[in-house]
Amino acid sequence: MELHGATALVTGTNRGIGHHFAIELLRRGAKVYATARRPELVNVPGAEVLRLDITDQGSVEAAAAIATDVDVLINNAAFTAGGNFMTGDLDAIRMTMDSNYYGTLAMIRAFAPILARNGGGAILNVLSAAAWTTVDGNTSYAAAKSAQWGLTNGVRLELAAQGTQVTALVPGLIATETMKDFAANAGIDFPDGLLEDPADLVRLALDGLEAGEIEIVDRIGADAKASLIGPPSTFDLEAVAASYGAGTRS
Whole-prediction pTM value? Predict the structure, then answer.
């Protein structure tokens, strides 16, 4: 998928990875629709900013009615704070599944006909290595990402006939404010270089998208997928940190 001259829509561009996707796509010569539930928080010079709540069908349809020239869809927006199944707030757990799974599905269903009319194009879904394991403290998020991985594989099969490339980005630990706050609250020190710089991850993802890859992983993502051949395991942040030469603070 050639990104220079493409038209991309990115969800969740008000911060984190989504912001970096919008910036890097513009740098590569794409037109960008930068979307967020609160568009006033989007700071992406050169992009066309749209209000978009992926869990609101009316909002999704409104964005699709405007962005009719899209040939690259990047599904990044997601609610992450569901917590554990047994102790988390049930509404938060529902929102985690609603945004990661149903919200992504709503976006794909709305934009697949647009991609078809524009030559097929590509879809990139931002997943997590948690899809291949689970995370104590946020088991509902891990389950939602696992469901999103299955969704990604399913729509890849269904959209192949219209020539739409469907790619999954499956990273491990990303140096976002959310991850840094989570680690700080857990008393975990990560070694230098373990947390993936969002800008570097985005470049890896877009290089893979242009190369036609259907699954893009970093080193932690690769280890998580390899673990699927054994018994189910927990993604233990403390253990991961220790394995790379760090640990918990005293």
Answer: 0.92
